[in-house]
Design a protein that fits this description.
The protein is α+β, with helices and mostly antiparallel strands. It has three helices and six strands, in the order αββββαβαβ.
């Protein structure tokens, strides 16, 4: 589902309507920035802030978005390079402000050293619940 959703998203960039459009397999979060590392019980996780303007109507306490264990993919170059992570902490009050905690997978961690605070990512979440596939 994630691969299909990203392919659909990339083809929608030509239409210029990707911010308003709904996708079947993914949820899109714009202008995501990795703001700070956090020491947690699962190791080093990262706080990521995303744009909440297109998501004002979402009631985070009841939402199935960004659940613990959900797979997210982040890219700053139209998915030429990818960072994969899972949601490691989900606080509805923080989500309201556009902040979620992610645990990046082993293959993505070396790339984190090169990220600048000003780097802006497109973050994509699969609608399939990742923990169930692990």
């Amino acid at each position: 589902p994630l691969r299909d959703g990203i392919a659909e998203l990339l083809s929608s960039f030509d239409d210029k309507g990707s911010r308003k459009r709904r996708f079947d397999d993914i949820r899109v979060y714009f202008n995501a920035k990795i703001i700070a590392p956090v020491c947690s019980s699962v190791g080093i996780t990262y706080k990521v802030k995303f744009d909440t303007k297109p998501l004002k109507a979402i009631r985070w306490q009841n939402s199935k978005r960004l659940l613990y264990g959900s797979l997210v993919c982040m890219s700053k170059d139209n998915f030429e390079t990818l960072l994969f992570a899972t949601v490691s902490d989900r606080d509805p009050a923080e989500l309201q402000k556009g902040v979620v905690q992610l645990c990046f997978n082993e293959s993505s961690r070396p790339s984190l050293a090169e990220i600048q605070p000003s780097d802006s990512f497109l973050m994509v979440e699969t609608t399939a619940y990742f923990e169930a596939y692990r």
